[in-house]
Design goal:
541 residues, alpha/beta, Rossmann fold, Hect, E3 ligase catalytic domain fold, 5-stranded mixed beta sheet, 4-stranded mixed beta sheet, 16% strand
Length: 541
């Protein structure tokens, strides 16, 4: 090996290629605009945005127009329903766009994940997004942190607005001033003052549906009757569905009442709507408007629907038939197999020409011994007598039973472990962190130590995330407390209203007092009384 420098031969560039690359290429620039509502003032904003970006792109000699993509009246928290946005992304993938202009990150997306995902996709394609308000171009890799910061702020703003709207609706609901919609409500319309007004022709149809169903007609029968008589739906269509008919028969608005907050959105991002079965408060307003059917007829139809539902057997599509169902028999949703956990079903056996009822494991009935091997068949009369004996044993000392109920509930009402801050403390701290975040954003422009600044951003975001989780836990605990208290009151009332000794089988009394009956063997059951008391009882066959 020598100390001589290596010989390097330089190959000069080709003049013709140098000349080609020197030519400035015009960028194909597109603009994305969005307004979140279809209100008149927002519509003018929408038109103004389109005009602004048209002028801006056409007046720049280095740019050529690649299109104006505008979504009107569509939320920014999700890109799923933003058709123009998605069309713009498709054209980017087809190499028809070089640069995208948009007003702000908030206009581009209020969902942090969507914002980052799409800017990354576009960066891989060599396409930048120029956010005018924040003065950020997404092409440089070091821009992602600031985009994340601003995106998180936009998402937080959406969550805050959504929360304010929800709380506002709840406040109005509590005092009865919330506007109740009647859109697509067959039989009603709103007058000039916003009050419910009955449509006479449709009201007669509603009354006839209630009358026919109460008399024994099925939902399919009602569907055939409506279509045979060429009666139009609320949308003017000739085809009815059993679902829409059922909604008429089960909607409390037809007896003049209103139940608010039947459903709710889980979060502002997914916008998933779920049924409110106690997770949140509900608000009931009796005699809110003119009724089409009497409250008695409404309740009668509701009871008839429950009775028919009770006659249906559990679904065989579920593995081992573990479906919940209600029946005219109290034990149908309380008597469970001790081996596989499946509910028992009432059956009729014939022996020596005599019929008598028995209870059998549904899994054993549907699948033999595949899932449940040793569940016993129990005659109804000795089973009922055993349950009555357990109830009477528990009722022998009502004060003790009530104490057990209260003790069981008190365990569920213990404070949430690990929570040292109240809801008010968390709200105050979140407000402080928002102020710190905004101040840091203002100072970040002139700060030389970017790493230290980024560390402060990360610290604030981490604390905000932790506090929001704590807030969610406390709110969930509060809802659970309400549900537990309601259960306690129901159990106490059931015990107090029941006689000291029950001599005959009473379906309603069993429903009120017994929570669960587990079949341990052919000779023994475990009866769980509401409130937590459990009694093992022998079956005298």
């Amino acid at each position: 090996m020598t100390d001589e420098k290596p010989r390097v031969i330089i190959i000069p560039p080709k003049p013709e290629l140098q000349q080609t690359t020197a030519v400035t290429k015009q960028l194909r620039v597109a603009a994305y605009c969005r307004v979140s509502t279809k209100e008149e003032e927002q519509a003018s904003s929408y038109e103004a945005q389109c005009e602004y970006y048209t002028d801006k792109i056409m007046s720049n000699k280095e740019w050529t127009m690649a299109g104006i993509f505008a979504d009107e009246g569509i939320t920014g928290t999700s890109t799923k329903k933003r058709t123009e946005f998605l069309r713009m992304i498709r054209q980017c993938k087809q190499k028809k766009i070089d640069l995208i202009l948009t007003k702000s990150i908030q206009r581009f997306a209020r969902n942090t994940l969507d914002c980052i995902n799409y800017t990354r996709i576009l960066r891989q394609l060599g396409i930048g997004v120029l956010f005018e308000k924040e003065n950020i171009n997404s092409l440089p890799t070091d821009s992602e942190f600031m985009i994340t910061m601003y995106g998180a702020m936009a998402q937080s703003e959406s969550e805050s607005i959504s929360g304010n709207i929800r709380r506002g609706r709840q406040m109005h609901a509590k005092v009865g001033t919330l506007k109740v919609p009647c859109y697509r409500l067959y039989g009603y319309e709103k007058d000039t003052e916003g009050k419910f007004r009955v449509i006479p022709e449709q009201a007669e149809i509603v009354r006839e549906l209630y009358k026919r169903y109460e008399s024994g007609a099925s939902l399919r029968n009602l569907q055939d009757w409506l279509e045979e008589n060429q009666i139009k739906t609320v949308l003017g269509e000739s085809k009815w569905t059993t679902t829409s008919i059922k909604s008429i028969l089960t909607n409390e608005k037809y007896c003049g009442d209103v139940l608010l907050q039947k459903t709710f959105r889980t979060d502002v991002i997914s916008k998933k709507v779920i049924k409110n079965i106690g997770q949140m408060a509900q608000y009931y307003m009796p005699n809110h408007h003119e009724a089409i059917v009497s409250r008695e007829q409404y309740n009668a139809v509701k009871a008839e629907m429950a009775r028919r539902s009770a006659l249906r057997s559990p679904s065989k599509s579920a593995v081992t038939g573990r479906s919940c169902y209600t029946s005219k028999y109290a034990l149908s949703d309380r008597l469970a197999c001790g081996e596989c956990g499946t509910l028992y079903r009432r059956c009729t056996w014939i022996s020596l020409g005599r019929k008598y009822p028995v209870w059998r494991c549904t899994s054993r009935l549907n699948y033999g011994t595949k899932y449940c091997h040793d569940s016993p068949t129990i005659k109804e009369e000795p089973l009922q007598n055993a349950i009555l004996s357990a109830i009477n044993a528990a009722m022998s000392d009502k004060p003790v039973l009530l104490d057990r109920i209260k003790n069981a509930v008190s365990l569920e009402l213990l404070p949430v472990q690990g929570q040292t801050m109240s809801l008010a403390d968390i709200e105050r701290r979140l407000a402080q962190l928002d102020e710190q975040f905004q101040q840091l954003l203002t100072e970040a422009i002139d700060v030389e130590d970017k790493e230290a600044c980024n560390a402060q951003f990360a610290e604030i975001l981490a604390e905000q995330t932790s506090l929001k989780k704590q807030k969610e836990t406390i709110l969930q605990s509060s809802m659970d407390t309400d549900r537990v208290c309601t259960r306690m009151k129901q159990a106490e009332q059931a015990v107090e209203n029941t006689a000291q000794t029950i001599t005959e089988w009473n379906e309603n009394a069993v429903r009120q007092i017994v929570e669960r009956v587990t079949v341990l063997s052919a000779d023994e059951i475990l009866v769980r009384i509401k409130g937590g008391a459990e009694i093992k009882q022998t079956i005298n066959r």
